[in-house]
C-alpha cells in the first residue's frame, strides 16, 4: 500500500473533523474516495472540493448505527466502485459525565456509534478484503484507548474496545494480506470538541481543551504514512506517546496522575449540586 494512486479509500465520518482531513489527504495521494457520513450537506461540500481539483469522490449518506443502512451502503459502494482498498472508521461522539450519573441512554449514544458503528462496517466489508487478499483497515481510536480520561467512561470504554478490535483484525488479517492500524490522537481541533455532551460540567471543560487541540491535517499526514508503512499504531501528537510510555513504565504513577486530574476537573468544572 505504498502507492495510493487509484486505490479506493472509504472514510466514515468524512463530513468533518479527522474524517474530512483524512479524506482530503488520501485524495491528494491520488486515491478515489468513498465518503460516508450522516451529514448530507457536509458530504456534498467535501465531495465538491475534491471534484473541483479533478479528483474522484462518491458520497453515501448513512447512519452507521443502523446495520441495515450499512448493508445498503455496501451494496451500493461495491456496485458503483468495488471493494475498498483502505477502510477508515473515524465517526465518533463523546460525553463528559461522572460515571455514576451516566444514563444507559448516554452509554448507548456513545457505544452505538463509536463501537457498533465500527463493527457494522467491518462485519460487512472485511470478509471481501480477506477474499481479495489485500487491503488495510484504519480505526480511529483515541488517546483514551491507551489510558482512561476522568469523567469519560463511555468514551474510554468505546476506544479501548476499538484498540482490541483493531489488534484482532491485524492478527487475523495478516494471513490474507490485510493490515490494520489503530490511531490514538490526543485532543484534535475538530467539531467533536464543541459537540461533546456535558452532563453536570461547565462549557469551559471543552473550551479549555479546544485551545490546546492539535491540527487534524497533521494527524492525517501521520495516518496516511502509517497506512503506507503498515504501522500497528499511530499516536499523535508526540506528547501522547510520552504519557503512554509513562503508563507502561509505572501504573502507580498513572493512577496518581489520574486521581489528581479527576480532583482538579471536578473542583474546577463540576457545577454545584451535580454531585
Average of the residue pLDDT scores? 89
- CATH C-level: Alpha Beta
CATH architecture designation: 3-Layer(aba) Sandwich
Number of helices, counting only DSSP H or I runs of 4 residues or more: 11
* Percentage of residues in strands: 15-25%
Tell me the number of strands. 9
Helix content: 40-55%
Please indicate the count of domains: 1
Biggest β-sheet: count, sense, barrel?
Answer: 7 strands, parallel
CATH superfamily: NAD(P)-binding Rossmann-like Domain
- Report the radius of gyration as a whole number of Å: 19 Å
CATH topology category name: Rossmann fold
Task: Return the structural class.
Answer: alpha/beta
Specify the overall morphology.
globular
Q: What is the end-to-end distance?
A: 51 Å
Order of secondary-structure elements: EHEHEHEEHHEHEHEHHEHH
Strand arrangement in the largest pleated sheet: 3-2-1-4-6-7-9
Quaternary state of this entry equals: single chain
Low-confidence stretches: none
Note down, in words, how this protein is organized.
The protein has 275 residues and is an alpha/beta fold. The protein has a single domain (8-269), classed as Rossmann fold. It contains eleven helices and nine strands. It has helices at residues 17-28, 40-52, 67-80, 104-114, 116-132, 153-173, 191-195, 204-211, 216-228, 238-249, 251-269, and strands at residues 8-12, 32-37, 57-61, 86-89, 95-96, 135-140, 178-185, 197-198, 233-236. The strands form two sheets. A seven-stranded parallel sheet has the order 3-2-1-4-6-7-9, with helices on both faces. Strands 5-8 form a two-stranded parallel sheet. The longest helix is centred in the middle third of the chain and has 21 residues, at 153-173. The termini are far apart. 43% of the residues are buried. The mean pLDDT is 89.
Amino acid at each position: 500500500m505504498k502507492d495510493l494512486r487509484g486505490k479506493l479509500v472509504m472514510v466514515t465520518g468524512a463530513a468533518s473533523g479527522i474524517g474530512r482531513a483524512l479524506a482530503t489527504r488520501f485524495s491528494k495521494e491520488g486515491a478515489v474516495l468513498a465518503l460516508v457520513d450522516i451529514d448530507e450537506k457536509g458530504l456534498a461540500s467535501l465531495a465538491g472540493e475534491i471534484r473541483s481539483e479533478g479528483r474522484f469522490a462518491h458520497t453515501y449518506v448513512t447512519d452507521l448505527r443502523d446495520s441495515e443502512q450499512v448493508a445498503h451502503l455496501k451494496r451500493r459502494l461495491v456496485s458503483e466502485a468495488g471493494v475498498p482498498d483502505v477502510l477508515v472508521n473515524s465517526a465518533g461522539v463523546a460525553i463528559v459525565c461522572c460515571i455514576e450519573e451516566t444514563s444507559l441512554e448516554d452509554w448507548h449514544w456513545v457505544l452505538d456509534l463509536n463501537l457498533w458503528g465500527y463493527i457494522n462496517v467491518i462485519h460487512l466489508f472485511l470478509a471481501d478484503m480477506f477474499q481479495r487478499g489485500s487491503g488495510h483497515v484504519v480505526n480511529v481510536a483515541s488517546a483514551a484507548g491507551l489510558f482512561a480520561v476522568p469523567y469519560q467512561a463511555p468514551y474510554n470504554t468505546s476506544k479501548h474496545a476499538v484498540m482490541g478490535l483493531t489488534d484482532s483484525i491485524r492478527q487475523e488479517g495478516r494471513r490474507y494480506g490485510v493490515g490494520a492500524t489503530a490511531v490514538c490522537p490526543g485532543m484534535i481541533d475538530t467539531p467533536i470538541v464543541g459537540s461533546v455532551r456535558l452532563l453536570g460540567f461547565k462549557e469551559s471543560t471543552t473550551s479549555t481543551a479546544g485551545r490546546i487541540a492539535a491540527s487534524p491535517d497533521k494527524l492525517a499526514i501521520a495516518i496516511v504514512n502509517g497506512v503506507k508503512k503498515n504501522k500497528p499504531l499511530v499516536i499523535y501528537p508526540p506528547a501522547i506517546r510520552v504519557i503512554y510510555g509513562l503508563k507502561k513504565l509505572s501504573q502507580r504513577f498513572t493512577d496518581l496522575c489520574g486521581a489528581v486530574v479527576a480532583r482538579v476537573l471536578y473542583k474546577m468544572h463540576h457545577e454545584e449540586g451535580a454531585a
